[in-house]
Amino acid sequence: MNHSSQNMIAALILAIGLTGAAWTLGSQFGKLRESGVITVKGLAEAEYKASLGTWRVGITAWGDNYANAMSNNKKQFAILKSFLQKQGFSAEEIKSEEMSVSSHTEYYTDEKGERQSRENGYDASRDFSISTQDLAKLQKAQSAILQLRAENDTVNFSSPKFYLEDLETIKRTLISKATQDAAIRAEEFAKTGKMKVGAMQSASQGSFDIQSTSPTSDDSSDSYGGGYDTSTIDKKVRLVVTIQYRIDD
Fold first, then answer.
1. Which helix or strand (DSSP H or E) is residue 180 part of?
2. What is the rounded CA–CA span in Å between residue 164 and residue 155?
3. H-helix or E-strand containing 65?
4. Distance between CA atoms of residues 83 and 1, nearest Å
5. How far, rounded to the nearest angstrom, does the alpha carbon of residue 42 sit from its chain's CA centroid?
6. What CA–CA distance (Å, rounded) separates 79 from 127?
7. End-to-end CA gap in the chain
8. CB neighbours (10 Å) of residue 244?
9. Which percentage of the chain shows pLDDT scores above 70?
């Protein structure tokens, strides 16, 4: 096949594709006219900074019997409390939880090279739950506890979590912006189909996502039906609405 023939075939395929696309678009607008409504989605995004941080730190101490495990925990727990106070946390920001004691299971390899387990003493665990609006103080304490952990292997801690406190106000603001975006989209659809947008018939909120401004952060679900990244202070909030409008010729 020569080059000229190839060009003719390519042009024919493109023409058929454009005709099909035009027919599909026309068909969709025909359905809109028949149904008398148009359904569009609106999107709103904004960046916010977290205003509340939470953190869990604690002690897990071993003892050869129940009483010794509790005694060892109390000693180390006092050291951890002193550390938190030196970091500037107030009594209102620190909440101590109840101690729990459980059998300690250790794993070993027997003479046959097989992995085995056995009970050996007890583990006594107790945590502090910290909640503060001073996020800089929380981040500083997170760095400082690494040295304490290096000196004392009974210390354990999680990564801090950062939250937006006024979620309902943020949500209402984004709903307003997303609704405006949906109206603009409806006007564009209607203008293409030579129609006019009428009154709103129905509206519903879709996903409400609170993500980090960094795309590499892990997400976790929340009760709002979207993602909630609590790993960073800087947040990007995204809300989607679905709105149905009446259309007129």
1. helix 167-192
2. 29
3. none
4. 82
5. 21
6. 13
7. 50
8. 17
9. 82
Convert the pLDDT of each residue in 13-41 to its tens digit: 444 444 444 444 444 445 555 568 889 99
Torsion angle, alpha carbons of 172, 178, 184, 187, to 10: -90
Half-sphere exposure (Cβ direction) of 98: Cα atoms closer than 13 Å: 2
Which CA distances in Å does 87 have to 14, 74, 226?
Answer: 69, 20, 35
Cα angle at 134 between 133 and 138, to 5 degrees? 110
Element (H, E) at 219: none
CA 193 – CA 200 distance, rounded (Å) = 18
Least Cα distance to 214 among 227, 200, 229 occurs for: 229
The dihedrals phi and psi of 25, each to the nearest 5 degrees, come to: -65, -40
Q: What is the tens place of the pLDDT at every residue in 63-122?
A: 999 999 999 999 999 999 999 999 999 999 999 999 999 999 999 898 889 998 999 999
What does pTM read for this prediction?
Answer: 0.76
Cβ atoms of 3 and 207 within 8 Å: the answer is: no
